[in-house]
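User: I'll paste a sequence; please echo it back and then give the predicted structure.

Assistant: Echoing your sequence first, then the prediction.
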Amino acid sequence: MKTIAALVLSAGLTCNVLGEVVAKQGPPDDDSVRFRSPMILEVPLPVSDPATWTGSRIRSMEVLSRYKCDGVSLSLLGFTADSPSHGNIRITLDAKVDAELGHDKIVSMTAQAFDGDEEIGSRGAVNGLKVEEGANSFARWSLLVIPESTLREHPKTRVRIIVHVKAN
């Protein structure tokens, strides 16, 4: 996975929207919002503020549906951070995954939290999510366990979601 990330980063192909979301992959299919698998999305972690560590779902306000990976997009992204336990924050991610007409897909996603280039906490993944054409599927998985002290020291944490898509 680090090799893919290094290749993507070295390609230098990025698209910024509202200065918040970054979508990467090299090279894009035809414009800077349609990619071949894998696609990497980076979004701010909306639950890095201790006031959000209540177990309530916080929806990312970033517009992700414009980014397509082999006909698949994320149209909803939510984060839930539980109250600290044993010095760690457990974060759950839920995503609504959509497929374009004529595209039945199997989607796998990995999520990682980063402070700059440094990965912090554990990774989370969902594998084998079936998404039928013109429909959507919902995925929920335990995203990360991040030390509470790390989030307090680095409130600008970002989440990198790597989307892999296969034909079904």
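The longest strand covers residues 118-131. Confidence is low (pLDDT under 50) at residues 1-19.
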